[in-house]
Design brief:
homodimer; Rossmann fold; 4-stranded parallel beta sheet; 15% strand; pyruvate (chains A, B); nucleotide-binding (chains A, B); serine/threonine-protein kinase (chains A, B)
Chain lengths: 270, 270
């Protein structure tokens, strides 16, 4: 198996995301090693040795995806026997040419604390999601960007948190419970914020599987209960013209981006 | 101002991360537009028109960062008048050559639901973080990968959630309160899991600022209280040999990756 090293003088998250995207097109397994915060020559040299050792041991030339700003440290890594893919610098030169502006590597702060406002927006959104999770309170819905609705365990909470962390968006979520569904009516707090509602639904078998893992052999996780709740909730979404998506075959990222696309709500942080 | 378009047939998250990393080296502001799920020729053509309109209106040639797998759709986008940067394909050919294996673009599922196990690991970690947030319960610490400790509002919760969502790691967090700090002793539940403890601390002025935004002019947000709590907690960290880091000047990503680096805990998902 080939080993892939993600090497950076920062968090290496950019190198990881980049590497995943490229390697996901190859029908091979890879051994993955992340090496963040390579900030001095000693550490760079140690990583170089580790890369070369990996080559000797496996007999397969390692791949190195790196985003190292300092050229001395970068040169140490690229002098290893791996094949090195320089994700940043490959694009910096043509962009410099297009813009007629020199890049200043020192200002590179991709996953650093770019600015206080950005940071506060994000943390406020996380706090908002937590305080308004699972219908805990409905008093702060005026401040919501989006209110996710759906049955218990259809994916509302992870989606709320992802939208908060990644995009700084304030997402409340409200679980439809038996009573709401029997009456087929929106609770009052939701009616007042109808334009913010977005529904999630899920395949009944998948829902049952998820609920079984939480609470095996209960009424809550019974197949009939899952089917009943989802049938009712989808009827309610249609009656009330609430946009909704099926989460069954989508990752949290896909669900989040689809919601932004459908609602047109802009990212608060980029 | 130049406009940057992030265009993808998926979530466009890879294109965004990539674009941010490269553009963060340029001392210029950019107008950013994300266009996800470009899945058919009609949509691709509409985006092409939008890109060209943007050029005409601003007089500045737009930048397009794209990760489009389908070559027909990709050709529509790259026939726009923008400068297009093809992040995936730039690297695919040399990697094919290194590996001696052809890429199969159809299997590209960077931010899709790669597999059920991956998905469950992540959602379980998010649930774990929520259920074990803020010392709510200490009964499930046996299942924790890490237990973050520190005073209220030093960054424990966002870090726990980020580690769960990004890396599938199970993180509990426990706030040191007055009583713990007066006695300068670890609560029993923490003692039993001492090897999992990781401390966060923060600059007293920054802590005060954060607490003021939550609860202005309270004892909780008084400068003296913040200084007292942080002084005590850092003494406790040292006495008990708990590794800790200062969160003041670091993003959630940086804190998370530093914790993984210091503890050596492997990512559960990549």
């Amino acid at each position: 198996m080939h080993t892939v090293f993600y090497v950076s003088d920062g968090t290496a998250i950019t190198a990881e995301v980049f590497g995943h995207a490229v390697l996901s097109q190859f029908p091979l397994p890879f051994e993955q090693v992340t090496v963040p915060f390579v900030g001095d020559e000693g550490k760079a040299q140690a990583i170089k040795d580790k890369i070369n050792d990996s080559y000797r041991q496996s007999g397969k030339q390692p791949l190195v995806f790196h985003t190292i700003v300092d050229s001395t440290l970068r040169n140490i890594i690229t002098s290893s026997e791996a094949k090195c893919y320089d994700f940043l610098n490959t694009f910096v030169a043509p962009i410099e040419q297009q813009l007629g502006v020199k890049a200043d590597p020192r200002i590179n702060r991709t996953h650093g604390m770019e600015n206080r406002k950005h940071y506060d927006t994000r943390i406020d959104a996380v706090n908002y999601a937590l305080e308004n999770d699972d219908g805990m309170t409905t008093k702060a819905y005026d401040e919501a960007d989006i209110i996710l609705v759906g049955v218990s365990r259809c994916g509302k909470t992870p989606t709320s948190l992802y939208l908060a962390l990644q995009f700084g968006i304030r997402v409340a979520n409200y679980p439809f419970i038996d009573q709401d569904m029997q009456q087929m009516e929106l609770p009052k707090a939701l009616k007042a914020n109808r334009h913010k509602l977005f529904g999630l639904t899920i395949d009944p078998n998948r829902l049952q599987e998820i609920r079984q893992r939480r609470m095996a052999n209960s009424g809550y996780s019974a197949a009939a209960q899952c089917r009943y709740e989802l049938g009712q909730v989808e009827r309610l979404f249609r009656m009330e013209a609430i946009p909704f998506i099926d989460t069954t075959y989508h990752s949290v990222e896909e669900i989040s981006v689809k919601i932004l696309e459908r609602t047109g709500i802009p990212r608060r942080i980029y």
